[in-house]
Amino acid sequence: MSDDHVYLTLAEGHEDDTRWAYGTGFEDPLHGVDTTVPEGVDAEALAAECVALADDALVSAQRLAEWVTRAPELEEEVALANIGLDLLGQARLLYSRAGQADGTGRDEDAYAYFRDAEDFRNVRLAELPGGDFAFAVVRLLVLSSWRLAHFRRLEAHPDPVLAAVAAKGVKELTYHRQYAAEWCVRLGDGTDESHRRMRAALDEAAPYLGELHTAYDVRDEVAEDLRQVTEAAGLTLPVHRPLPGSGRAGEHTEHLAPLLTELQGVARAHPGATW
Amino acid sequence: MVTGGPALLDAHRARHVAEQVPDPELPMLTLADLGVLRDVEVTVDGTVVASLTPTYSGCPAMAEMRADVAARLRDAGYPRVEIRTVLDPPWTSDWITESGRLKLAEHGIAPPGAAPRGPVSLVLSPTRPAVPCPRCGSADTEETSRFAATSCKALWRCRACREPFEYVKEI
Ligand SMILES: [Zn+2]
Description:
The complex is a heterodimer of chains A (275) and B (171).
Chain A: H1 3-11, H2 43-65, H3 74-101, H4 108-113, H5 124-127, H6 133-154, H7 160-188, H8 192-205, H9 219-233, H10 256-269
Helix pairs in contact in A: 2-3, 3-7, 6-7, 6-8, 6-9, 7-9
Chain B: H1 5-19, H2 31-34, E1 37-42, E2 48-52, H3 62-75, E3 81-85, H4 98-106, E4 109-110, E5 141-145, E6 153-158, E7 164-168
Parallel strand pairs in B: 2-3, 4-7
Antiparallel strand pairs in B: 1-2, 5-6, 6-7
The complex binds zinc ion.
């Protein structure tokens, strides 16, 4: 990227839409896309699907961003931030689509900043605090493997906007899954300590796996990815009884609310402000 | 309604203007080189409609590109400009033109190979071929990070000339 160009943009006062990637009040990411909901598509179900997928992505992006300045190596920090940015981009498109489909006309900011924890529909695995790098890569492997399989199904969705968002996302998620898988193998097949932490991470994630499978059954694809990785890493996927409740129904852990407080604080303190 | 002749010429000129806009993150490339400018047409009322496609869902340069194209077209004498976002089919690195690939290499950035088609399986053995060094041409290179300063690039290092370099990923 050209430094001159960026700094010039930052310095220009943003009187129109020439703003860079920060703050709030972005223009619609679906700007100029035909947003008619096709006949025969259940608009309410479409909106719900978009919100759930967007919430997974937004909450995951926030957890990934927490690694910036804390990852074991600079390269990993850049990687995790980039993966978060891809997910944030997917979330923006999906929130915009949801607002068109549910007829409320809400924009992406309304969904991201002005809903409370019980209105979020992300799976609980996405919101768990990610203190250990081993847990971060295990969670990323599970969520990207599931999302990739799910998005592949969505490429054939009758809503052309959701189908297009999915088709784009598939390419990105392929990279995310590969990144997570390679780290899982490296750590699982690494030192005694990294192996031990990988086992702990799998134990922590396992009770939440069942929550992922709802609309489309992609269990086999996800299981195959996990089998391949755990085998190469010298690990076994623990069998756990699924935890009761579901983030998809708005039932969350105590960890989501503090995450949202941080995410939403500035937007709520200064509603309508752009920065 | 005006058809053919002058209108067609006008569309050609508008397209040419839009094609020359540099990419904000890879400024050695024009938007046409990068393959993100899908279409430029002039409607009967003289509005220029330019269609752009994002490289990545989270590409932070998208708003910037839209603004740049609109500004260039206005400067070129088209007061009414409309920018459309096209999501389908999704952008692929295969759309980077031949001249775009040459320009990347000239600037020390390795251009992408052919993008995968269809579903990509998880592969855990190191089967990826080495990317040749854009400076010295050596194949003795290694990846240092799958992700770099922008989503579309990875970081590599050349063991022969010892220079790090960026590489536009296949997608
Ligand atoms: Zn070299």
